[in-house]
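Notebook p. 47: complex prediction with flavin-adenine dinucleotide.
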Amino acid sequence: AFDVLIVGGGPAGSAAAVYAARKGIDTGIAVERMGGQVNDTLSIENYISVLETDGPKFGAALEAQVRHYGVDIMSQQRAVELIPAAQPGGLVGVRMENGGVLQSRSVILSTGARWRNVNVPGEQEYKNKGVAYCPHCDGPLFKGKHVAVIGGGNSGVEAAIDLAGVVAHVTLIEFADQLKADAVLVAKLNSLPNVTVNVNAQTTEITGDGNKVDGLRFKDRVSGAEHTVALEGVFVQIGLVPNTEWLKGTVELSRFGEIVVDAKGHTNVPGVFGAGDCTTVPYKQIVIAAGDGAKAALSAFDYLIRTPLV
Ligand code: FAD
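Predicted complex, structure tokens below:
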């Protein structure tokens, strides 16, 4: 059995692995794909102390550091069930898709999240070529340009307000007949001179010239009229889904499916910790996930030295 078993190897899981292994305890990491979401990122310009890097390079560096400390890396392994210890101090089990059960005195859950796609033609083709999901990450790439935000909930409206300060013009596209964001955000949005809001608008296609995005098509759901907007970027803001479906019923989740953690990364299950985008920690960013992983590992270590093995 491991002292610490980490499930997921993005920035959060990798940081947890490095911090745990450096305590000299038996550390394993079970992961579908080392690196996590950063593998799908073109350019990273906001990881502190690194002026610019790209996702695959950053992901490879995470894995190299985890390997350097002799962590047992179990790749292409998908966890399907968490089996809490029968009593505090007992072993926690993690059942893998291949049927095996890994056992550990403590477990850190860091399975991350995925952006919900709008699933229209052009979205996949132009990912990272104008189609973006994270305004904090990619907003500055569209400085002075025209972009759209798809989604009029809190994250869409926040993104539109944020982007309006950076880009030339923002077109917000909402499927429903009104924006669902908090009234204070909607009021702020409506006060901005360079934002156009379209409600009852169904995005039908993201168009491009073969290399990058050049427009967005939407249908007015009331009149049936089709519209085309010429623009350089499309931010899809229709939800971030935590990879926690497999934990339903064993670990407390928020109504958004995020693992509920306290300030030290404890979940409601003894010996089980959470870190990064799969948890209730606010602001889903690499630097935040990495710090959170370090914190969860230190909490797990604290748990191990205080909890006798039964
Ligand atoms: P993830 O990176 O999502 O890692 C989750 C890990 O868990 C992966 O290894 C995955 O394979 C594994 N996993 C999932 N389910 C299971 C399972 N059941 N069993 C085993 N393993 C599992 N942030 C920034 O700070 N700057 C940026 O420029 C930036 N750009 C981005 C661009 C894009 C296109 C995207 C998608 C995200 C971007 N982000 C950026 C956000 C950033 O990537 C995330 O906040 C960060 O990766 C979260 O780290 P994490 O470790 O919590 O989760």
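Notes: The mean pLDDT is 97. The chain has six helices and 19 strands.
Next step: compare against the earlier run before touching the bench.
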